[in-house]
Specification:
Length: 467
């Protein structure tokens, strides 16, 4: 299968993070003094959206292979060259750029932003050829418009090409209050609640989704509402697609992750409901992993081996890699457990809570639907792997979920290499086939007793569903 082709159109900028330590106030003003440890730079705005399209999230209905092109104004200055060089595998189609490169510099300490300094701009495109824009859009499986208020979505030539493409192609539009309105015919428009209220005042997100769909002549509108999830208005009506709770509270970049995941899913052939479900889950994972600041720091590290990671770990989902690196960098203990978790019950909760207490993070290795069928029979699972993973990830005791397709977890365990492997049952660790693997990297195997009288099979038998 050939790679899905995604084109990102919008306003690119350069994000810089000045990271350091602050332990005192300045003697000449009541402001914190930051002793700088490092400076990280990475593409922002539509540049970040393009990078996220090139790194599909490990959730939902997204194609595994993509090729990404960014169409954006980029200035011919040092910051513009730095931005272009940092795009990696993303192909850049330059538009003329008015003024110097738009740059956002954040001064950060202990994970918090103390100050942001904006430079450059205005970034308005100059010398745009409608034929050039149309040629870049041609053949795209999905086009993502990432509006950061720099003027791309107000340019007549860009708008004409996008409107023509939307007649037959797939356009996802992530709007901005200072940008142009979405062109008619967009497959999906993704304002957040504040942007939606600013575009059409006087209603809640559910009502706004439907009203904006009509106003913008869009096929669908998804109003993102933070921890609630997203309100999707389409030809089928309006519904809330809820988000799983997350522990982190820094939402920076979540809108880009949402829009990029939706564009990837639609470009891969998913319907709009599945695409928005995927986008909600991807945005939640993004926030849980630390948001844009953590992402920029990780990219700045380049190919350097992160603490605690080993060859093969790159095959794990990105959010799991980040979790492992973070826990092990501070000397923490990674715990893992596994199972089908087909119908979640009190016994599962007790085992997961007990496992989590053995360390600093708990990763659940979850049997895929095919694996469960081979182990339990053709009538199982009752609940699909996507829903089982989502329910587990929402639990307070669970930090990450990895789905594996084999009949036992050894292959997944050898990628994860936890410090402690936990199983429930009435056997000894020596009876577990994976025990030798765990001990080969210095891990510990622990068996926890089941909570008496609780099992999925018993529940299904009582419900008359076991075959």
């Amino acid at each position: 299968m050939s790679a899905a082709r995604i084109v990102v159109v919008g306003d690119a900028l350069l994000d810089r993070d000045v990271a350091g330590t602050s332990t005192r106030l300045s003697p000449d003003a009541p402001v914190p003094v930051v002793d700088v440890d490092d400076v990280f730079a990475s593409p922002g705005g539509a540049g970040l959206a393009a990078l996220l399209c090139a790194e599909p999230p490990a959730v939902g209905s997204v194609p595994a292979e993509v090729s990404v092109t960014l169409l954006a104004p980029v200035a011919a200055d040092a910051a513009g060259h730095e931005l272009a060089a940092a795009l990696g595998d993303v192909a850049l189609e330059r538009l003329g750029h008015e003024g110097g490169t738009r740059t956002k510099t954040r001064v950060r300490s202990a994970g918090q932003t103390l100050l942001r300094v904006d430079e450059g701009g205005p970034g308005t495109p100059v010398g745009v050829s409608a034929a050039h824009v149309a040629a870049v859009l041609a053949g795209a499986d999905a086009v993502l418009v990432s509006d950061y208020g720099g003027g791309v979505t107000r340019d007549p030539a860009v708008r004409a090409a996008l409107e023509e493409h939307a007649r037959t192609g797939t356009v996802v539009w992530d709007p901005h209050p200072r940008g142009g309105e979405p062109v008619p015919g967009c497959a999906l428009v993704t304002p957040n609640a504040a942007e939606a209220a600013g575009a059409l005042d006087g209603a809640g997100p559910r009502e706004l989704a439907g009203a904006l769909r009509r106003r913008w002549s869009a096929r669908a509108v998804a109003v993102t509402a933070g921890a609630e999830g997203a309100y999707l208005a389409s030809a089928a009506g309006t519904e809330l697609l809820p988000a799983a709770p997350v522990r982190n509270t820094d939402p920076c970049g979540a809108g880009d992750r949402f829009a990029s995941a939706a564009a990837l899913a639609l470009g891969g052939g998913a319907d709009v409901t599945a695409a928005v479900e995927t986008a909600v889950e991807a945005a939640g994972q993004w926030v849980a992993a630390g948001g844009a600041a953590t992402y920029r720091t990780r990219r700045a590290a380049g190919t350097r081996q992160r603490p605690g990671l080993h060859p093969g770990a790159e095959r794990l989902p990105r959010e799991v890699q980040d979790l492992l690196a973070e826990v092990r960098a501070r000397g923490g203990t990674v715990v893992a457990t596994g199972g089908c978790f087909d119908v979640l019950h009190a016994g599962h909760i007790a085992s997961l809570d007990a496992a989590r207490r053995l360390g600093d993070a708990l990763v659940v290795l979850l049997n895929s639907d095919g694996s469960v069928r081979r182990l339990k029979g053709p009538g199982r699972p009752v609940v699909g792997q996507g829903d089982r993973a989502r329910v587990l990830a929402a639990l307070r005791s669970v930090d990450a979920v990895v789905v594996f397709d084999e009949d036992d977890p050894r292959a997944a365990l050898n990628l994860l290499r936890p410090d402690v492997w936990v199983k429930g049952g009435d056997y000894t660790p020596e009876q577990l086939p994976e025990a030798a693997d765990v001990r080969s990297w210095g891990g510990e195997v622990t068996v926890l007793p089941y909570l008496s009288g609780r099992s999925t099979t018993a529940i299904l038998q009582r419900a008359g569903r076991e075959r």
